Amino acid sequence: MKRSEKFRQANREAKATVVAAAAVIIFWCIAGFGLADVDISFYHTPLWVWGGCVGTWLFAILVTVILSEKVFVNFDLDDKEEKHNG
After folding, report:
1. Whole-prediction pTM value?
2. Exposed, middle or buried by CB within 10 Å (0-12, 13-18, 19+), for 31?
3. Beta bridge partners of 45
4. CA nearest neighbour of 42 among 30, 53, 58, 56
């Protein structure tokens, strides 16, 4: 992988991470504040607590898995060219 390709990939990963963080924040707002007026409880805990805490945590894990499988690429940041023996 050329140095310019490495920088493009690193920028792609950084931009995707910012979008993912924004998505988690938006989900947290909707799941927490959006459910505040709902009069449903689960184990004597309001639904907005479950959505804002547990739901956001699960959503963040899902987003992380998607990022790691679809966006992130494992490559060496070293500038040395790979040497092929043989």
Report:
1. 0.78
2. buried
3. 42
4. 53
